[in-house]
């Protein structure tokens, strides 16, 4: 029985992409191995193309976020918008994202990953074309909310597709790259938007969507989704496509089928089961981090950073280009050190940076309003904005990563160990040591 629990735990951890975790009695059921040292194998051109496809999705996500910042003054001037009307244009992206996020799971499970990508591209390209050729504010807002709807779904679709097509020894690395691509998409808008007309910028933003239209013909459907809907022959064909025609996919195919069956058997109780008393603390912790991170002002800084620079007395072009460089450098740094330092140190540094930079930016405008230290207040605003966006690039996406990791501990490890009365203690030790 003990050997069966050990094998089942290691299998379920590896199928979720936590290849550096293993079963260990000394560590209360979970230990850490050297999964990061595993050589990348079976990396085919189709797998690389599929990963690039997901990268295009998240790059487009970043483009939608960063578009309003460098274009505010020109859009308001060309279309005769007031500050309130442009504020509606900027914030309506979040409304569309809420709608898309609410139905993202149902849509991707109902239609599959590839068909959902087709649907997203219709909204994505259509949204940018509406913005590029609009002559009325209502069409401008319609295009923006269409992009928000796309973002709400793609924020779920891209990482889950990466996790379902990659092998366990590279799954975590490629999943963390997606957050970096979001930052690059926003940075692209900041830099290019400083030099081109806002309508041209909207047309340039359709490029990730057009690339996806071409790539969808060559990438396979998710093997795990095919197993979930009972299309076993297509599952094997998809695995051969991803791993290579000569690869032995029998073990992986069996593993995927077993994993899907275990999911079906463990989810019969329904979503109400996650609100049990023993899950309250970790659930509130992770959800609280996600909510507080987004309520900390990231949308205001990302959507209107150009206007903030101008208000502080700094050139919008210089500020946005510097901001793009900062996001890129810090994003790459965060991706490289996340598995070395762990989640908690990065979250602490990121949260402290967000708090201090918000305070610094507020102080700079406070000094400006009272005409105190006129020469220094623009510098404080500049440093505060760069520090804020850099801090978010470092750890702003970590709460989303922790969701999947905490879910693995509670949903997969707990039922396998059959020790539910003491699972909370095990998870506390696990989080303190590894997160």
Automatic annotation (TrEMBL):
Major facilitator superfamily (MFS) profile domain sequence ranges: 50-435
Record-annotated membrane-spanning stretches: 46-67, 79-103, 115-133, 145-162, 174-192, 198-219, 283-302, 308-334, 346-367, 379-403
GO CC, one annotated term: plasma membrane
Coarse class of the protein's main subcellular location: membrane
Family, similarity comment: Belongs to the major facilitator superfamily. Sugar transporter (TC 2.A.1.1) family.
PROSITE patterns: MFS
Record membrane topology: Multi-pass membrane protein
Subcellular compartments: Cell membrane
A GO molecular function held by the record: sugar transmembrane transporter activity
UniProt entry keywords in alphabetical sequence: Cell membrane, Membrane, Sugar transport, Transmembrane, Transmembrane helix, Transport
Statement: the UniProt record of this protein carries the keyword Magnesium: no
Name used for this protein in its record: Major facilitator superfamily (MFS) profile domain-containing protein
InterPro entries cross-referenced by the UniProt entry: MFS_dom, MFS_ERD6/Tret1-like, MFS_sugar_transport-like, MFS_trans_sf, MFS_Trehalose_Transporter
């Amino acid at each position: 029985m003990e050997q069966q629990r050990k094998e089942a735990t290691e299998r379920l951890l590896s199928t979720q992409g936590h290849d550096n975790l293993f079963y260990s009695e000394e560590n209360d059921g979970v230990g850490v191995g050297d999964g990061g040292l595993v050589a990348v194998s079976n990396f085919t051109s189709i797998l690389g193309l599929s990963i690039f496809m997901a990268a295009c999705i998240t790059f487009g996500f970043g483009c939608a976020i960063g578009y309003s910042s460098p274009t505010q003054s020109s859009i308001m001037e060309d279309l005769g918008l007031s500050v309130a009307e442009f504020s509606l244009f900027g914030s309506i992206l979040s409304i569309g994202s809420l709608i898309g996020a609410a139905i993202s799971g149902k849509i991707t499970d109902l239609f599959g990953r590839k068909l959902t990508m087709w649907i997203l591209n219709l909204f994505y390209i259509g949204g940018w074309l509406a913005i590029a050729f609009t002559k009325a504010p209502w069409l401008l807002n319609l295009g923006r909310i269409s992009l928000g709807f796309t973002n709400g779904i793609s924020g779920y679709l891209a990482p889950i597709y990466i996790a379902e097509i990659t092998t366990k020894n590279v799954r975590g690395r490629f999943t963390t790259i997606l957050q970096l691509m979001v930052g690059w998409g926003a940075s692209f808008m900041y830099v290019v938007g400083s030099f081109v007309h806002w309508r041209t910028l909207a047309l340039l933003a359709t490029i990730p969507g057009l690339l996806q239209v071409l790539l969808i013909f060559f990438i396979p459907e998710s093997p795990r989704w095919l197993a979930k809907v009972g299309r076993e022959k297509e599952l094997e064909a998809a695995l051969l496509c991803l791993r290579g025609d000569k690869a032995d996919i029998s073990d992986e195919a069996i593993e995927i089928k077993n994993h899907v069956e275990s999911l079906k058997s463990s989810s019969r109780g329904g979503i109400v089961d996650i609100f049990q008393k023993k899950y309250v603390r970790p659930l509130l912790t992770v959800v609280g981090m996600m909510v507080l991170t987004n309520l900390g002002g990231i949308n205001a800084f990302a959507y209107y950073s150009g206007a903030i620079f101008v208000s502080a007395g700094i050139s919008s072009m210089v500020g946005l280009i510097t901001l793009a460089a900062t996001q890129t450098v810090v994003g790459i740094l965060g991706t490289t050190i996340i598995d070395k330092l762990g989640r908690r140190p990065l979250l602490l540094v990121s949260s402290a940076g967000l708090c201090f930079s918000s305070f610094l930016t507020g102080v700079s405008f406070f000094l400006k309003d009272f005409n105190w230290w006129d020469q220094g207040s623009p510098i404080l605003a500049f440093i505060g904005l760069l520090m804020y966006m850099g801090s978010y690039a470092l750890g702003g996406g970590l709460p989303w990563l922790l969701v999947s990791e905490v879910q693995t501990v509670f949903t997969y490890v707990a039922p396998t160990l059959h020790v539910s009365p003491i699972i909370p203690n095990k998870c506390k030790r696990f989080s303190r040591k590894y997160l």
